[in-house]
Specification:
Largest sheet of chain A: 9 strands, mixed
CATH topology of the largest domain in chain A: L-amino peptidase D-ALA esterase/amidase
Oligomer: homodimer
Structural class of chain A: alpha+beta
Strand content of chain A: 25-35%
Distance between the termini of chain A: 47 Å
Shape of chain A: globular
Number of strands of chain A: 15
CATH superfamily of the largest domain in chain A: L-amino peptidase D-ALA esterase/amidase
């Protein structure tokens, strides 16, 4: 491994980035929670992003896409409490947010990325931004990454932040990230926001390519294709201050950068899954021996998304029949008579199904394994070399509670 | 309408059918619940069925398919408590069940349809059948339909049975049905069993065609294609005792028969949805103005299957943003700027979204409407003539409770 995680790392750990998050009053005028944040680089960055594929899109998403057309950006403004989606005046408000950020940071409006998360279909108030943005611009600092992470939380119970460092041509390069996302029975039905910053020197094209590779095996594996929220946004800024030789092709440096970015995104994806709404457990579905990577991914996703599997995991119930059932309806090309299934955790590993048929196992041992808070469902398809991992959580009473009356 | 529902109608309401359901001990040796049932016709029937598309299939499904190859059958044996799926000796046990039924009814083994529902991957005990089947054969009667309906229940809270009658060439024709199914966050992840009997004279081919038409707009609209359980079975027997001229082509009689069968299946589908595991409400999603029927169906299914929509319905929360979000990721060709959404129930109807944007509405009035136990989400796409209805239920604490530890 060519990289290492940095203790207490966050989005502002890389050189030249500052951030702050404040109580702005978007959630409600008397909220006590941070809900507006900005991140900025001291110099213009190469930038890339991936957005939701949902036909219904926040005005923030539409505007950020436009601002990223030239492949550069210098700051991010984001809020929780309101998604700015399905509103007649949504674009006007998103533009105003960028305009306020640009004015107070002394940069160009088109170099601001904007993101929102929260309730859909209620007009977003602009007054909180008019008041908060000048204040944020004043207090932004190297230490502000955590407050920024806090300001994008909705039903999240913990802040998600992390950073990795590695060497490129003798220079230390750092990538930091924050994320939020918690509506996770299908994760992508709840908005996922993630912002990453790096001091690497890398061209916009290579940054885009690296981000796409990383997302494919991280955030996209806590989700089902085409099943995305209206606001999902993952953006990365690269300001080049590490002083490495700029990455402009898929060379060895590109590989090191992308591997580190992938590891960072995977660690964030697991944090998202573990903090799924109401979740008590992180569930990892690990598939090996698939005909192809695509079949492996499809199988892993079907299992991780099955409400019956998720509920069984909540109950620490080794109900492997539901795992097989999910494999069976996944649409993947699988020979059911070759499928082996095992449950594993820090308490041990137990095989429950061999060649598609149940094997005798100790229910007590299985229970012990499934009572842990990180469970791996291991599936061996014995049919090729494709493998994949998907991340999810259990389905609990609290998921229902949180989503039964989210707006009030 | 050329048909009417029969008060207290059930699967044995048509001429020439008898049934019984008993406490056999499949669920456990000391269960107090009926778990084995048989239905039989006094003469051989034309028969048709649709089965799960899951790659993992109960041995009962595999064997029933074989027995139906010639288009005839005379009896059905079914049990709850064990799915007879993913067991090494599954086929042997399914054959034994048919053999016992045939012996005791004095018919051919290949004229028996077999179905099982319950836990996957545990060997099904044959002793309960050896003891119960002779007893069932003795007590089968015209009045036994309800006991049969009871014997296939798993987590269902109510029996599902119904019958319709109509005239064909001056003869009264009756179709009766029973059903079970309740694992319904995606309904098709929980086994759906339904058995219908009719005294209509109709060829196997036409029966198959009518069944397919009826299923398409009823049971298949509480489900997502490809996302089916391992045991789903819907079978119909037609013994011809009504004395109508046999339906052998898609003539007017075929239309009348199919419309009545469709209405019967729709009423059963709604009963299944309303009794979804933990459900407190029947949710109907009615889509109009779609480009095509396919787009209408896809849209309706995406909305009815959204966990976030389902949880909002549980909380009587008019969170129409989640409806739009589901439309957006449905994969259907929809112009979001034309979409109107309204919520309706016996307490009234309220428009919440017009042209893809929220409209002002009274939260109090919306709450009143959503507190009812049958809610229709009305979606007008304003983009064509396609329409469809899908049936589902809300997502509740009890769903999690029921599925958190189903096996113990």
């Amino acid at each position: 491994m060519n990289f290492e995680f940095i203790e207490n790392g966050t989005v502002t750990t890389p050189k030249g980035f500052t951030a702050a998050g404040v109580i702005g009053g978007v959630k409600s005028s008397n909220t006590t929670k941070r809900d507006i944040m900005m991140i900025a680089s001291e110099k213009i960055c190469n930038a890339a992003a991936v957005f939701t594929k949902n036909l219904v899109q926040s005005s923030a998403v539409t505007l950020s896409k436009k601002h990223l057309e030239n492949g550069t950006a210098q700051a991010i403004i984001a809020n929780s409490g309101n998604a700015n989606t399905c509103n007649a005046d949504g674009m006007e408000k998103a533009e105003k947010m960028c305009c306020l950020a640009a004015e107070n940071l002394g940069i160009d409006e088109s170099d601001v990325i904007v993101a929102s998360t929260g309730v859909i279909g209620q007009a977003i108030p602009i007054e909180p931004f008019e008041k908060a943005v000048p204040e944020i611009a004043k207090i932004m600092s190297k230490d502000g990454g955590s407050d920024a992470a806090e300001a994008i939380m909705t039903t999240d119970t913990v802040k998600k932040e992390s950073a990795v460092k590695f060497e490129l041509n003798g220079k230390t390069v750092t990538i930091g990230a924050i994320a939020k996302g918690s509506g996770m029975i299908h994760i992508n039905m709840g908005t996922m926001l993630s912002f990453a910053c790096t001091d690497a020197a890398i061209s916009s094209d290579m940054l885009k390519s690296a981000l796409k590779e990383a997302v494919e095996v991280s955030y996209n594996m806590v989700s089902v294709d085409g099943d995305t929220s209206t606001n999902d946004t993952l953006a990365i800024l690269a300001n080049g201050l590490a002083g490495n030789e700029e990455i402009t092709s898929r060379n060895e440096d590109y590989r090191i950068f992308t591997d580190a970015l992938t590891a960072l995104c995977k660690s964030m994806a697991k944090k998202l899954a573990a903090d799924g709404e109401g979740a008590t457990k992180l569930i990892i579905c690990s598939v090996n021996g698939a005909k192809t990577t695509t079949e492996a991914k499809g199988t892993a996703k079907a299992v991780i998304c099955s409400s019956l599997v998720k509920a069984a995991m909540f109950g620490s119930d080794a109900n492997w029949g539901r795992v097989l059932c999910a494999i069976g309806y996944s649409g993947c090309d699988v020979d059911i008579t070759k499928v082996d299934v095992a449950f594993s955790s820090s308490a041990g590993c137990i095989e429950v199904c061999k060649n598609g048929v149940g094997v005798d196992f100790s229910e007590d041992d299985a229970k012990k394994i499934l009572l842990e808070n990180e469970i791996t469902i291991k599936i061996e398809l014995n049919d090729g070399n494709g493998s994949a991992e998907a991340y999810g959580c259990d389905l609990t009473y609290d998921y229902v509670k949180i989503n039964g009356d989210y707006r009030t």
